[in-house]
Structure formats: structure tokens, C-alpha cells
Amino acid sequence: MTIIRISDDALARACGADELAAAFARKGHEIQRVSSWGMHWLEPLVEIDGKGFGPATLADIDAILDGSSGLAIGTIADHPFIASQQRLTFARAGKTRPLNLEDYEATGGWAGLRRARLIGSDAIIEELLASGLRGRGGAGFPAGIKWKTVAGATADQKYIVCNADEGDSATFADRMVMEGDPFQLIEGMAIAGEAVGASKGYVYIRSEYPDAIAKMQAAARISAQIVAPFVVEIRVGAGAYVCGEETSLLNSLEGKRGEVRAKPPLPALKGLFGKPTVVNNVLTLTAVPHILTGGGAAAYAELGMGRSKGTMPIQLAGNIRHGGLYETAFGITLGELVNDIGGGTASGRPVKAVQVGGPLGAYLHPDQFDIPFDYEAYAAVDALIGHAGLTVFDDTADLRAMARFAMEFCAAESCGKCTPCRIGSTRGVELIDRIATGGRVLAGVETAPQMHNMPKQGRSQDDEIQLLEDLCDTMKFGSLCALGGFTPYPVMSALKHWPDDFRK
Ligand code: SF4
Fold first, then answer.
1. 323-333: pLDDT as tens digits
2. Using CA atoms in the order 139, 142, 143, 148, what is the torsion angle rounded to 10 degrees?
3. pLDDT at 108 exceeding the cut of 80
């Protein structure tokens, strides 16, 4: 009897992992369902004695078992995609059974929480500050400062809220943590509770992640006694993009409409139910146990570049040959990620654009491929790292259509609270449509314009493009939150780098 290891990650299951596991089991082999290594182009990946075979189908089973399969990739841990990474958050990926406490303990699990309880609040926060860990959800705000603010607030109740509302295109790192290493997230939350004096934590997951929800619910139940008196509760959101914004998320958790709250007051002082609250995303909280153990804060801070410290789980998706999860220190260039690690486009055609940071991230041109992965370097070129999802496009992509999609997405997801976002995005779609048809002709001008004393006139394509730029400016600086404020990034970057797509 051979031990066969196959991932139970949702992506692997979508590729046929369940059927494969059942077929191996029918042949009398022992099946272990583990987390995913993150080499998505090889899923479902079958592991026997550390050696990998993928992507495997039912027809490959006999050849895999008798050693004649052409799908063999050798020792998985030595595969260049894995061996070239610096895995801290994803150190257990592919190696452990997600809900197995023995596996977790044997790989260093709970050591961070034990140490946190030993050193106490001030020392935990000092370590976090020294590590330079910044919020991995998008804004990159230093986690230690947020924790220090909550720790310093006086209140009868404080909360830890984990933002697991992963809604960006090309992102799946949060999902992989929750499905593959859920105890690590719970441990990070319990450490945060210890640091700031919070006894209750909530994980807010969108409903599109049924596997992650089930795993987190089970993990919270299994680990309840270990993290007690800290209590973790799993909450399911309906899946509005704006609920990934921390104040909307808090409203949603309170059972209210997911609308953005004006700041101040900061959630750190007046957050969930008006109490001091740490809101961090999944990757931020899961980085914490390693910082408190592993090489410690100093070793963590040595990784990366500038003020972007530590590692970032980068998600490679879209039209890319080797899509998957790649964790490495900040500073790696986009060209290395897309061409060297990702293997270029899956279609084999030249790369035209890479959108970084979700649907509101800028489109980067191959001329910009030497930009290092770093919050400040990206901000300097009007781009975002966001949640580090990369969507690759080949030369058949139409960037005007993608700019239109950004405006359309904003119109669909706008919470409606402020005018630049609510109205601006709809006008943006109309403008891009008019640009596509060469501008506004006189016959199309409304017969009862608001400005009755203005002569009616058509607008050239260039006039419309100028208007689009003005609209983006208004949305960027006039919107209350990042949804309206960041929508101009994909639109303006598309216009800047691929003007011919707009003037066709
Ligand atoms: S920018 Fe959009 S999503 Fe954000 S508060 Fe304004 S209307 Fe709501």
C-alpha cells in the first residue's frame, strides 16, 4: 500500500482531485489530503514519497503507480518554482493536512502564541514594529502601529477582525491560507488578541469561498481550547467588493448595509460595535506567528527592500504558463515574475500588459518590467501592489475594453455614498463608448441640455479623451474610498501606455 498525497484545495478539487483520490483509494492505497503547493498548472498534483506527478487524470493512475508516467516532475520540494521561493507564510503549503493538529504542532504550530503569552503585550508589539510588517491587504499601513493604537485604547471590549473578503481579480492567497493552513490564521489572530487585549475575533469571509468557510469553521472548533480564552467566530459576507474596505466590512459585520464610514474616527479607536478594533487581512495575521518565532523580527526585517519588509505571497494568474502562488521577498522585478517564473503567456504570444493589484490596479507595460515589487516603487509610477495579484494579458488584449471594464466594475460595485464614484463611473463607461465610436456627433447631443444657453456641439475623439482624463482626476481626488479613488488607475494607465487602443 502506497501513501498518496493529493491536495484538497478548491483549485485542485476543481481540476479533478477528488475523483483522482477516490480512484487511488479504490485500488487500496492510503490517501492523505494535504494543502496545495501552489503550482496550479500542475493540479491535480499527485505526491508519492516526495515525488510529484501532474497534472494527473484518471487515465494516468496506473502509469504513476508503476513509475512509467511521463507526468513525473521529480522531487516536488526541489522543483525550481518551489526551490526559488522564500516561503514563510506558505512554509507548510503542500506539506501538511489542513485540519490536522499533529501536523500543525510538528511544523512549529502554536510556538508563536506560546511565546506571545510569555512575553506579553508590549514586547509583542515591539517585535511587530521591529519586523516592519505592513498590512498585506492593499494600503500597506504598518501593522505594529495599528496594534499599538488599539492596545493603548481604554475599553471594556476590543476586537480582532480578520478581513478575508478577498475580492481582487487574480488573488487566491487568502483562500489558500484558509483552506490549507487555517490554524496559522487563528494563531495570528490569538496573538493579536494577546497584544491588544481583545478576547474576541471575527473572520469575515465572502460567500464565494465555501471551502474556506468550512475549513475555518472546523479549525475554529478544533482549536477552541488551545486559543481560549480568545474566541474566534466565522462570519460570511454576501460578497460586495466594497465590503473589503475595512469600515464597510465593520458595518456589514454589525448587520448593516456595507457602506463606507467616514474616518476619523479610526477603527482602531472606534471600530466594531464602536469598540477599539484591529482590522487586518489574512496574510498580515498569518505572517505574525513566524515573526514571533522563526528567525524573529530582525531576520524578517532583513528581507525585502526599502520600507517593504519581509515576504509577499504573489499570485500569478491570467494568461500565464505557470500560474500559481509564489512567495518571495519584496524587491523582485515584474519581469522576473512574469517571464522567468511564470514562463510568459500560456498562449505563447508576447505579453502586452500586466495588471497588478486587482481590478483597480494599474496596467503595467513590458517597458516597466524592471520595476521592483515594492510599495513605494509602485506608487511612484501611479500603480498599486494591492493584494499582489498579477493578471497577465497577451498582445490580443484590447486595453480600451479593459478600461471600460474598470469603470463598469466601479459602477456595479459602488456603494452609492459619494457622487464621483456613483455617477462618475457610469459617465466613464459612456465616455469610453463614445471614444470607441470616434467622439460625440451633433445628432447624438441631447435635445434638452442642462445648459440651455450653451450652443449644442459635437465633440471630437480627442475632446472625449480629455474629458475622460478630467473625470478620472475628479474620481481619484473626490471619492470617499479606494473603490472610486483607484478606478482611474487602470483607466489612466491603459490610456497612457496603449493610446492606439483608444484611437482605433
Ligand atoms: S468611492 Fe464609491 S464605494 Fe467608496 S464611498 Fe464613495 S460611492 Fe461608496
1. 999 999 999 99
2. -130
3. yes
